[in-house]
Amino acid sequence: MKKTCMIAVVFGVGLFAEDKIPAGAREVQPYTYSYTDARGNQWTYRQTPFGVTKWQASDVPAPTMKEQPNPVTVTELGDQVRFERRTPFGQYVWTKKKSEMNGDEKLLLQIAAENK
Question: What integer pLDDT is reported at residue 63 of this predicted model?
Fold first, then answer.
């Protein structure tokens, strides 16, 4: 009985699984392919260790998170810049000289200047 059930499950799953990626599919990432069928529907195929899966963009729900505003407050203090960031553990504050800022801090200063 166990063997019969196991065989039924294995063959049943095999009947529903896509077995190959269609010819003409374009690879967009490793193991991920994009394909447009004859009806004009856009399909995404992914090769997994368990077989090939496919879905349409409409099958994936839209993200529910809203874009967060810049969480860092930047204040210029002459030749220094003060950065403030809220974290779950409280406010994190640091000060840097303009000549010693790294790329991320320079970008934060530029974004703050554009938003004034």
Answer: 76
